[in-house]
Design a protein that fits this description.
Length: 308
């Protein structure tokens, strides 16, 4: 391939999107292709911590692609979550661990998908398949992505393969998984610089539940639920504005305690009863504690859908 490959993850990039882009660009370069990582938005404090720790630079920002561009998508495939004009560029490869949806190409492509906890877990296999050694700094960053996506192996999305891969990457990068992992996750929970509007948009998904309930489900990670709950009044105001402007039936903010793997929810909207019914809780002042709930993908959206 003589043309440069641009490698990037989804918009509102998380640590996996950034780490996968950097690792994949490195792998392609080793395979003799010219490749560079890109990002589709600002990096999080958690990602910044990981990049600094392993002394790796932040990828350049990419805002749009053209039909001349050769691209590799990592950690996503849905065009809605990708760069502007993605459908007109040439997609050379996809490496991803999400559902495949809203995705179509005109040309054949490489597509690597597995239902594991992190894109970097799949990437590790691709390094092995191609007999390419992973340098310590890249291994550390890939480990960071697995820790991030699986919340230190505690998320229900985590598989055995994620754990064994993380252990190997920890050896290569000479990292203590628990000490480093907790420090990295905690770095991502410093929410003090964000406004309430920003908090509710850091990681938010608009979903229609059971074809009838229009919902926004936002999530923030914290080491101390009370920290976020001290801003409850202001958060509720912003949530109510969202309900009015987007015509929502339900607005949920999951405040997830990443240390103990529980969530406090703030719930507003005419269908708040769905949360009470789904988790057998009573909302008091629009809030309830959900023991053991951390994954929107596996423990919230499907449960609400089953109870609608
Ligand atoms: Mn991601
Ligand atoms: Mn991911």
């Amino acid at each position: 391939m003589d043309k440069k490959l641009l490698v990037f993850g989804h918009k509102s990039p998380d640590t996996d999107s950034i780490a996968s882009s950097i690792a994949m660009a490195f792998l392609q370069t080793k395979l003799g292709n010219s490749a560079e990582p890109r990002r589709l938005g600002n990096i999080s404090k958690e990602t910044e911590y990981a990049l600094n720790h392993f002394k790796i630079g932040v990828p350049e920002l990419l805002t749009s692609v053209s039909e001349d561009d050769n691209i590799i998508l990592v950690d996503h495939n849905e065009f809605d979550q990708s760069v502007d004009n993605v459908q007109n560029s040439h997609i050379y490869m996809v490496v991803d661990h999400h559902r495949i949806s809203n995705f179509q190409t005109t040309d054949p492509l490489y597509y690597y998908a597995e239902p594991v906890g992190c894109t970097c877990t799949i990437l590790y296999k691709l390094f092995e398949l191609n007999h390419i050694m992973i340098p310590a700094d890249v291994a550390g960053l890939m480990l960071s992505a697995i820790i991030s996506d699986t919340l230190l192996f505690k998320s229900p999305t985590c598989t055995k393969l994620d754990i064994t891969t993380a252990e190997r990457l920890a050896q290569i990068s000479n990292t203590d998984i628990n000490t480093y992992g907790l420090a990295m996750l905690k770095a991502g929970t410093d929410l003090s610089s964000f406004s309430e509007e920003e908090l509710l948009d850091l990681d938010a998904k608009l979903v229609t539940i059971g074809n009838t309930v229009k919902a926004k489900i936002a999530q923030v990670n914290t080491a101390d639920i009370n920290d976020v709950m001290s801003r409850k009044d202001k958060l509720e105001k912003v949530m109510q504005n969202g309900i009015n402007s987007l015509n929502l039936d339900l607005s949920v903010l999951l405040i997830t305690d990443i240390i103990n793997s529980n969530s406090q929810v703030i719930v507003l909207g005419s269908r708040s009863d769905l949360i009470e019914k789904s988790y057998s809780v009573k909302l008091e002042n629009n809030t309830a504690f959900l023991k053991g709930i951390v994954s929107r993908k596996k423990q919230v959206i499907p449960i609400l859908t089953a109870n609608v």
